[in-house]
Automatic annotation (TrEMBL):
Site (Substrate discrimination): 20
Domain of life where this protein originates: Bacteria
Primary location: cytoplasm
Species: Roseivirga thermotolerans
Family: Belongs to the DNA polymerase type-Y family.
This enzyme's EC code(s): 2.7.7.7
EC supergroup of this enzyme: transferase
Protein name: DNA polymerase IV
Length: 366
């Protein structure tokens, strides 16, 4: 990290390994060691989660299940049991709470923990992460991967480094080298389209990203440029916020070629809607406000929103209302071509409060 005068924190990111599929395999021994997909069937539907055995064949979450079956004919489809996943998630949460109250869940299967000052007065964040992993295994039968570092950004990347059942420490002295060697597509927040744009500009890893000034990055990537400038230098002051309220969930896609025909637009929306639905399920969030985002080939952008009396809680509801919003847009607008579509759900059921905006960084000993 560039600013050595800053006090540091101990942040752990815990990410369960193939959570939904692992719960199914753990509860049903007949599924262990076999390729499992949670959700969908051979003919229709979407994969909510895939076991590591299925991932070896290229099966991924949010993939149409018919495609998953073509990739892996031996795959076993099981019906999602979200109440069971929530039950196990609460068991894991109770383990976290025995170490710290500074817990920021991102979904049912992952969370940030600030253990700078912890309930067991343990000096080592690495030993805490090991203990948490061992308790999760003992109490649930499941494995988790953990990343440990000085901030949320690096800890999250680190947790993905040695999956499954991984443990990766990026201590203060290793932050600079870790980020400089990191491939640009591995930076959390850099999607496929942005990664390709960066590569076209000669930015292939953290070291080449670091060579760019903040002004140049903002000129090419807007406000996100300032974020990239800071994170590649190890600067991420976001607190682990136990009162964090997620305000929206969505997905979008930028197309290789402009779309003009209504049929093409709806086909493109199908996969986006599947992704949004899967993310809502994972986070156990259901929104009453649906927003459709459309960016045209001339970079003009419009959004259309509709709020409903009840949360949209099924894939069919989300798809039906998304297409309804699309149908109410003047067809003439599409003649220029559409380069991006996005779908977002917000106004979640039981939503309250605002995001905390302040945090404190403390001293540590890794």
């Amino acid at each position: 990290m560039e600013k050595a005068s800053k006090t540091l924190r101990k942040i752990i990111h815990v990410d369960m390994d193939a959570f939904f599929a692992s719960v199914e395999q753990n509860d049903n021994p007949e599924l262990r060691g076999k390729p499992v997909a949670v959700g969908g069937s051979r003919e229709r539907g979407v994969v909510a989660a895939a076991s590591y055995e299925a991932r070896k064949f290229g099966v991924r979450s949010a993939m149409p299940s018919a495609l998953a079956y073509r990739k892996c004919p031996e795959i076993i489809f099981v019906k999602p049991r979200f109440e069971r996943y929530k039950e196990v998630s609460m068991q894991i949460r109770s383990i976290f709470e025995s170490y710290t109250d500074l817990i920021e869940p991102l979904s049912l299967d992952e969370a940030f923990l600030d253990v700078t000052h912890n309930k067991k007065a343990m000096a080592s964040a690495t030993l805490i992460a090991k203990a948490i992993k061992q308790e999760i295994k003992a109490k649930t039968g499941l494995t988790a991967s953990a990343g440990i570092s000085i901030n949320k950004f690096i800890a999250k990347i680190a947790s993905d480094y040695h999956k499954p059942d991984g443990l990766t420490l990026v201590g203060p002295e290793k932050v600079t080298l870790f980020l400089e060697q990191l491939p640009i597509e591995k930076f959390f927040g850099v999607g496929k389209v942005t990664a390709q744009k960066m590569k076209n500009l000669g930015i292939v890893d953290g070291k080449s990203l670091k060579a760019w000034s903040k002004e140049a990055l903002m000129a090419n990537f807007g406000k996100s440029g300032a974020f990239y400038y800071n994170i590649v230098r190890g600067n991420d002051e976001r607190p682990v916020n136990p009162n964090r309220i997620r305000k929206s969930l969505g997905a979008e896609n930028t197309f290789d070629h402009d779309l003009k025909e209504p049929t093409d637009l709806k086909m493109a929306l199908d996969s986006i809607i599947l992704t949004v639905y899967n993310r809502l399920k994972k986070a156990d969030k259901w929104g009453k406000t649906l927003t459709l985002k459309v960016k045209f080939s001339d970079f003009r952008q419009i959004t259309r929103s509709q709020t409903y009396e009840k949360p949209l809680a099924t894939l069919e509801d989300i798809a039906q209302h998304t297409f309804s919003i699309l149908d109410n847009i003047d067809p003439a607008d599409f003649e220029i071509g559409v380069r991006l579509l996005g779908v977002t759900l917000s106004n979640f059921e039981g939503e309250q409060g605002e995001l905390a905006k302040a945090g404190q960084q403390l001293t540590l000993n890794f």
